[in-house]
């Protein structure tokens, strides 16, 4: 049984669904937020001045509250248990994927998410074990922000929310529906509900500890750009934009290049001397095995 608990966790998405995004990505900064400002805000981030202030506020909370707790959690929690916790909350999120897949007109994805939930909730002991992935049953994660994008709200302004972290105006609009479709929301006992939410946030933050080293330069910009690109990737279900080299109809035409580019004297100009080489050095006919 432990082999399923020991499966390596998948890379965490820049958007965690169903819990407050308190420093989940925004606060994976491991240090003070940069206050560097640009003369002209990026088109997708017209509220950069406000967003940076919220970014700094969230960062302080992370450095003095969430990150130390996440480190302690990582230290005392065995890897199999930590993986099981992540699997449990991920399994609950499948219900949101089912709902939004239906709203987006994706019956196949809705069916796959339903299968994942049923398999992991039963055979997987309440979602602690991810049997569905081992059976190669996977589904694209969907939320109401993505549903709004499918319905026509494509481009949206970047927005950093206190406690919740990076978002957009569109994704923020979809948050109430996301919370309404998350089972933990309906736990009657306040203490249990808050404990589950806190555990989910801490587990996600612990999973980001090893990713902090990836952040370079202006932390605010890095996280903003990474978040927006991640959301675009999720909205498009991994389908990239127009790229001639990725097109099935793209053909490489050697006639586009001048023959002079491949003349022998080009090697001489580069300082490479092949006069001392014979065919055997390159596996020619005289080379021996």
From TrEMBL:
Presence of the UniProt keyword Nucleus in the record: no
InterPro entries documented for this protein: MlaA
Highest taxon in the source lineage: Bacteria
Region of interest (Disordered), residue spans: 259-289
Keywords, sorted A to Z: Signal
A GO CC term attached to the entry: membrane
Record's keyword annotation contains Zinc: no
Protein name per Swiss-Prot or TrEMBL: ABC transporter
Biological process, per Gene Ontology: intermembrane phospholipid transfer
PANTHER family recorded: INTERMEMBRANE PHOSPHOLIPID TRANSPORT SYSTEM LIPOPROTEIN MLAA, LIPOPROTEIN VACJ-RELATED
Stated family: Belongs to the MlaA family.
